[in-house]
Design goal:
The chain is mostly helical and about 160 residues long. The chain has 5 helices and no strands.
């Protein structure tokens, strides 16, 4: 293997691992830190947080998911000729779980969080309590985030196993 090839593999691997860590970290943050602790804030502070901070968290997660998928596909393309057949099952399992998790993120979790942000912004602008739908979307988002986090842990196990087989 040429040194240039190894440098490319290293860049793609680091990019994939770092962005995947951001994705998993964002899931853990929203599921186990933000969600449970938002209930402890006053209603006004909770609305402000949802309107001002949550969009930044969502943007970070969207970027982490996208970069993780892009780096992962590129890395697989570059190394697929060097993989042993016994590594492929774990890699395919990890890819399948990652794709299911990405669908969960972009079809359920992030859109539900976006609804929470929209309702919070409307409540702040109108100086009225938020719609009762806000809790429905918040629970849906938190459930999607929990599912995604559990699936990502499965991806992590599959990817680690592929390196040791």
């Amino acid at each position: 293997m040429k040194m240039v090839d190894q440098i490319l593999i290293d860049i793609l691997a680091y990019g994939h691992v770092l962005s995947a860590m951001g994705w998993l970290g964002g899931g853990i943050l929203t599921t186990f830190v933000l969600g449970p602790n938002l209930r402890n804030l006053s209603p006004g502070a909770g609305l402000e947080f949802n309107a001002r901070i949550l969009p930044k968290v969502l943007r970070f997660v969207e970027i982490a998911v996208g970069l993780s998928l892009v780096f992962g596909v590129l890395l697989f393309y570059v190394v697929m000729g060097d993989l042993r057949p016994d590594q492929l099952n774990e890699i395919y399992a990890g890819v399948a779980l990652a794709l299911i998790t990405a669908v969960d993120a972009f079809a359920l979790t992030i859109p539900s969080f976006r609804k929470v942000v929209k309702i919070a912004n409307e409540a702040l602008q109108n100086k009225q309590p938020p719609s009762p739908d806000m809790m429905k979307y918040a629970m849906r988002a938190r459930t999607g985030s929990l599912i995604g986090t559990v699936l990502l842990l499965g991806v992590l196990v599959a990817m680690i196993a592929s390196g040791f087989s």
